[in-house]
Every structure is written in structure tokens, then in C-alpha cells.
Write a structure and sequence with these properties.
It contains 13 helices and 16 strands. With 411 residues, the chain is of the alpha+beta class.
Length: 411
Amino acid sequence: MARHVTLVLCGSDGDPLGTAAPFAVEWPWWQDAEAVVAAAAGNGLDVIVLRLLGGTPAVEGGPLSGGEVTYLAELRGPAPAGLGPVTPALVSTALDDHPLRMPWARAGGPSDDLAWATWRLEESGLGLTGPPAQIRTWNLSSIWRLATTSGTVWLKVVPDFFAHEGMVVELVALLRADTVPEVIACEGNRMLLADIPGEDLYDTGFSHVAAMARLLIDAQVATGDLVDELADRGATDWRIREMAPQLARVVDDWGHSLDLEARWRLDAIVDGLEATATAVANAGLPDTLVHGDFHPGNVRGDPSTVEKGLTIIDWGDSGVGHPLLDAHDFIARAAATHHDALWKVWIDGWRKVVRKSDPLRAAELLAPVAALRNAAVFRHFCDSIEPSERPYHVNDIARGLRAAANTAWGP
């Protein structure tokens, strides 16, 4: 399912130079920049992908992958002959500023990030041994792979609403360094992270996903005393009472997209959040660190064995709240054949930690809350990013609402 890519090229000042001839890349995901940069280089163009301008995915209403896609790209070096014109609509899209535009989506932004990375590497006694490689760019992150004198290092830049990620990783590392990436440098929205051997374990067997669940539980228990500090230092507060206004707003603003029965169910869930919070607390589990986007693809390791260890990555959605919020998301995104056994891992794991608790009851109560939280997260993304990037997330709002409405509820 290839992407058919059109690049609108601009100079370092952001002014459009022209349109490159379209080309295809086999890797379908729109936020992937590495394949686009490589294909452009094959056509004699040295570019940095800045941002999405528009497109049509291969599957209508599906994820943004394949199909036709247009990006704005900063050209390094002189403009080649033979560039096509830029249509008036694309000129407007490419040039018009927007207050929610990410810094790395502007001409010169990635170069500023790389200059910071080079400086911080030098401070750590490291140097670059090759040109930086752009890996990903979209509204949630800009990621570069850096070849250094000490091996691969990753530059990650995130939006303001994820700026607590580096802080969270550094705090977790104080108690469970084996759980998270090593932070070489962190300042504001920028991080330099040491390489993690292995692969992102999207498609893996039960031994791996069970080990992932146990690893997160161990990290949550180890960092239990940090909950208030994490919240005070900017981690998102996912405790039921604190996030109740966000859940109510997403239902009020987006519930119209569902049928009347589904909307009635959502209203009942929102009206019952106070009772749910009390019932969940009575089940006996403490509030903990919450990863917020815990799924097998956000864990790296050796796909052939769990013995070499696992590392949980991408903590931008992290916050504080009930630990089983992570269980709902993780199990929903694992293979269906693993669901029952994974719930047993999670329930038994927390019963061992808090012996008089009732994690099964908590999990049942949290099911609609977890789904509504997802809808609120994606709504927050859409409210915090420029319109051209919202297609990445907008369909997930209604998807979360439908999941909540279809979940049995009642304290």
C-alpha cells in the first residue's frame, strides 16, 4: 500500500520554490519521513520534511497510510531546474502561518533542534560521525537518528502538551532504570535518548506481552511515592475526579455523532463519574504512574526472547491515575487470543501487591472511563494542533466515544 508523494519545496525562509515530480514510497505511514527523504534523495533532492499539507489515504476513513499525500519540505541547497508550479491553494496552505504550528514544522525548526542536539552531545563528550537521519515528523513528535562516537542516539522533540515526558522518564529511571530509555540530555521539549537494542514489539507472542504487563506493574509499584510529585511537575492528571470535566466536554461536543441510545449511555457514564470514582477507590488499588499509551508497539526488546529485557518507550501521554487504565488500552490492542490470559496477569499481579484489593471490580468499573479518556486525549490533540494535522486523530474521538457507549457500566 504505497504512498504517492508530492513535495512542495521551500527554502530556509519558508517561501515555496516549486513542486517536485511525484514519486512512490513503499512504507505507507504518513508520519514516516525516512522513506520520503530517501526517495527524494534518489531524485537528487536533499530535503527535510516539515509538515503535512494534505492527502487522501488508501482506505477512506481509515488510518493515514498509503494513497496520495502532499508535504512541505525544506530544500537544502539550490533549487533544481524543472520544478513544477505550486497551485494557489497549496501556496496558501504552505505559507499561511498558524499559532498552533509545531516548531519543527517550520523552515529552520529542525535545524535548530539539530544544533541543540550537537551542542548537548559535545557537552557529553560525544560527536557526530555522520549526517543526521530524519525518521518521523508529525504533530506529536519529530524524531531523528544520530550516528555518534558512542553509537546511535535519538533526538526526540515533542509538543508542549508532552513536555513532561523527559521529566517522567528521568524520575522513573531513578528507581527502575531498566524500564525506560536512558536520557542523555533533556531540555524543555527536546530529549536525547540512548539507543535501545531490539525492535518495537507490535506483533509478538504471549510470553512477551505478559512480561510487558508485569514490567509496567513493577514500575508503577516502584514509583508509587512519586505520584504527587509527578502531578506537581506537569504530568497529566488522569484521576477520575480530575479528568471528569474533560470527559463531560468531549461527550457534550462530540456525542452528536452517535445515535441517541449511545448518547444516552455516554450521558449516564458522565453523570455517574462521582459514584464510579468512589467505587473504584473502594476496590483498594492506589493511584500510580500511568503510561497513557501502553501497547506492544511502545515496548522494545528482542522478539525471540524476553530474557534480554524490555524497555517501555514513548511516555508523552503519561500521567497519574488508576493503574488499570493502562491495562484496558494494552489488552484491547493485543491479540484477541491473549485477552483473557492478560487480564489474569494484571488482576493477579495487583492482588499480590495489595492483598485485600479487588482489581477485577476496579477493571470492570474503569472500562467505560478508559474508553472515554481515549476520546478526550484525541480531542485534546485536535484542539492543540493546526487543522492540517487533525486528520491524524479526529476519527479516534468518535471511536473512543463508541467504545465507551458499548461498554457495560454501573457502580
